[in-house]
Fold:
Amino acid sequence: MIEAENMKVLVTGGSGFLGSHICTALKEADHHVVVLDTATPPDTDEWLQQTITEPLPIILGLDAVIHLAALANPRECDAGPARAFSVNVGGT
Structure:
């Protein structure tokens, strides 16, 4: 297996449960981590504080994108199905 070195990776939803663990693993592997999320990420090199439904800024030099941004709480989705659709489908 070929292992990439020093990749620049965008993680949408990098402050969530899965995202935060992925960011930590990427940092431990010496990758440059850029997080796009509304909440403060635990371990990152760059943080773009915005929702996934806003137009993304140009991020030069990205090698990969891991897309995890979503409304994950079922109650929140049930309470606002239009918002859940906008974030979970439109954001993707």
